[in-house]
Amino acid sequence: MQQQEKNTLLIKNTARNLGFDYCGIAKAEYLEEEAPKLDAWLAKNYHGKMAYMANHFDKRLDPRKLVDNAQSVISLMYNYYPPKKLPEGKEDLKIAKYAYGKDYHFVVKDKLKSFLEILREEIGEINGRVFVDSAPVMERQWAQKAGLGWTGKNSLLLNKNSGSFFFLAELIIDLPLKYDNPVTKDYCGTCTRCIDACPTDAIVQDNLVDASKCISYLTIELKEEIPTEFKGEMENWAFGCDICQDVCPWNRFSRPHQEPEFLPTPELESLEWQEMTKETFNRVFKKSALKRSKWEGLKRNIQFIRQT
After folding, report:
1. 198 is in an annotated binding site
2. What radius of gyration, in Å, describes the C-alpha atoms of the chain?
3. In a designed cystine with 247, which of 196, 197, 279, 287 is the match (CB 3.0 to 4.6 A)?
4. How many CA atoms lie within 13 A of 177 on its CB side?
């Protein structure tokens, strides 16, 4: 077996041993097809107040600008579909499933650091960096190039066997490897369930989302007051939104995750959102992704929902 094949096999086995559900590898190169798409998306101001999305345009498109002499982009998927959902009744405030437990940035990044250490121990000196939604990396595009899935109409990566409730992560390294074939077929077909279900009409067309209308953007990224045009449209989502994923037929294949750190605490399960104080927020969400919205942001979201 050639060295590239041995290294590739080591990477796939290491990914499995660390709990990643899927691992694919693509050649590190300029994403030529994505350049005009990204440019057009930004020009239409679909990124809203997320000014950082317009930064580092070249780095977003070329991983070799992130890691010197980058040869390979290793894309990984880590399941977060919960064994049990938090209450989602008509009057219940809702949070996105990815935020049930400990912040994924910590959990997945620790695994990636271990991943890179293992590779260096087994192979030798490797120049590389790890990424978990924390740098200008077009993770869905790389995952598709690495054969992990295709981009759905809601712009999320869909996997034929497991749906979309996954965190994406990457290792960009200077090691040439055996590359996987990209997924070139769109398995969504004529289905428009995600488009039809979005209450704020954020999905403007196939694979194109106006983030400035997305409930996840409005409840997390937007730091100003939520525009009044969205009153009555939030469907009780206080942090994030799963509507387009919940209605997606491919998510009937979702399986409960095996990560204890993603489970909600008993205190979160019994939380009285309306009565929550800042002290309670800081205690319950100390290591949670909800810290991104801060107490003031979450309070704003809840008040906006209850006023409608």
Report:
1. yes
2. 20
3. 197
4. 31
For residue 165, pLDDT beyond 90: yes
Cβ atoms 288, 212 nearer than 8 A? no
Is 151 assigned a ligand-binding role in the annotation? yes
CA distance 245 to 75: 21
DSSP 116-149: HHHHHHHH----EEEESS-SS--HHHHHHHTTS-
Q: Which residues are catalytic?
A: 133
291 phi and psi angles, rounded to 5 deg: -60, -20
Question: The whole model's pTM is what?
Answer: 0.94
| Domain annotation for the chain: domains and CATH numbers | 3-88+97-173 (3.40.109), 193-307 (no CATH)
Q: Residue 154 annotated as binding?
A: yes
User: Residue 76's Cα: distance from chain center in Å?
Assistant: 11
CA distances from 131 to 66, 71, 163, 306 (A): 11, 16, 22, 37
223 is in an annotated binding site: yes
For 14-63, how does the pLDDT look when each residue is reduced to its tens digit (9 = 90+)? 999 999 999 999 999 999 988 888 887 878 777 777 766 767 778 888 99
Q: With 70 as the cut, is the pLDDT of residue 209 above it?
A: yes
